[in-house]
Amino acid sequence: MAQTNPPFMSGVPELLVLRLLAGQEMYGYEIVRAVKLVTDEAISLGEGVIYPVLHGLEKSGALRAKRKPVNGRTRVYYSLTSKGRSRFERLTREWDRVSSGIHSALSGREHAKA
Amino acid sequence: MAQTNPPFMSGVPELLVLRLLAGQEMYGYEIVRAVKLVTDEAISLGEGVIYPVLHGLEKSGALRAKRKPVNGRTRVYYSLTSKGRSRFERLTREWDRVSSGIHSALSGREHAKA
DNA sequence: TGACATGCCTCGAACGACAAAGTAAATTTA
DNA sequence: TAAATTTACTTTGTCGTTCGAGGCATGTCA
Fold first, then answer.
1. Minimal Cα–Cα distance from A61 to chain B, Å?
2. Predicted local distance difference test score (pLDDT) of residue A7
3. Is B60 helix (H, G, I), strand (E, B) or coil?
4. DSSP for A51-114?
5. Angle at Cα A96 formed by Cα B31 and Cα A51, nearest 5°?
6. Rg of chain A's alpha carbons, rounded to an integer?
7. Which residues pair with A66 in a beta bridge?
8. What pLDDT, in 10s, does the model give residues A34-70?
9. Measured between alpha carbons, how far is A97 from A109 in angstroms, rounded to an integer?
10. A33 touches chain B (CB under 8 A)
11. Model pTM score
C-alpha cells in the first residue's frame, strides 16, 4: 500500500520539510498543505509521511519543537536548529548533484559508448 | 546496508536503464559502466542494483533478452520492447514533474503561506 | 444534530536500493 | 606458468522509507 506520487520520492519529504522550515517555523498540518503549494501541486504528502519525518528530524537534533495551544487545540511548531540547517544544505547539494546527473543522462544524445 | 549514493535514488536505476536501452541494446555489465558515464559520475550503480532491475523489467515485458556468446563468455543483451518504450516515456514525464516541483520549492522565495 | 475542518498520532505493508559474496572463464602480468 | 585482475552474471539479506488507512479530540458551521 505505497504509491500515489510514484517513484522518485526517496529523501524528498525530508528535503521539503527542511526547506519549508528554513523559511519560518511551522506546524505539521500546515506543512502538509504547504508542500502542495510550493511544489506547484506536483507533490502531495499525507500526514502519515510528514509526521514521522518531523519526529525523526527532531530526534536527530535537526529540529526543535515547541507546543503552543491555539484556540483550544494544540499545535506543535517546529524550527530548524543549526544542525538542521546544515543538513538542509547538504541535502540540497546532494539533490542538485543527483538531479543534474539524471538530467545529463536524459538529455544526452544517444549512445555514449562505455 | 543500503546507501552510498544517498537519498533521491528511488526509481532512478530503472529510469537510467530504460534510458540507456532506448539508445541501443546493451548487456548488464556494460550498463553498470555506462551509468557513470552518462550521469557525469554523479551516479554509480552496482551490479546488485542493475541486474535485479534488468530481470524485473524483462519479467514485466518491458525488455527482451538475447543471449550471445562472445569470446567464450556469455553476454545477455537487452533491448526495449514497445511496452518498455512507453514505460520509459511515462517515467520520464513523471521525473520531470517531480523534479520541477522540487525545483520550485527550493528556488521559491521564502514563505508561501498556506 | 451532524458533517466537516483542524490537528495530532501510529500502524503495517510494500517496495526498492544496496553491499557483499559467490561462480566461472578470459586476459593480463610477473 | 602461476597469480592477479577483469569480465560477466546471479542471489541473498538487510534496511530505510513512503504510503494509506485508521484513530482520537476539539472547533465551527448548517
1. 19
2. 84
3. coil
4. HHHHHHHHHTTSEEEEEEEETTEEEEEEEE-HHHHHHHHHHHHHHHHHHHHHHHHHHS-S----
5. 105
6. 17
7. A77
8. 999 999 999 999 999 999 999 999 999 999 999 999 9
9. 20
10. yes
11. 0.93
Q: In whole angstroms, what is the distance from residue A15 CA to residue A91 CA?
A: 7
Closest chain B residue to the Cα of A95, Cα to Cα: B8
- Using a CB–CB cutoff of 8 Å, tell me whether B56 touches chain A: no
Answer for the pair A19, A39: CB distance below 8 angstroms, yes or no. no
Q: What does the pLDDT look like over B11-47, one tens digit per residue?
A: 999 999 999 999 999 999 999 999 999 999 999 999 9
Alpha helices in chain B (DSSP H): 12-23, 28-38, 47-59, 82-107
Instruction: Choose among A15, A23, A2: nearest CA to A99.
Output: A15
Chain center to CA of B85: 13
In this structure, what C-alpha cell is assigned to residue B13? Answer: 536505476
Q: DSSP letter string over A5-35?
A: S-SS-TTHHHHHHHHHHHHS-EEHHHHHHHH
- Report which secondary-structure segment, H or E, holds A49: helix A47-59
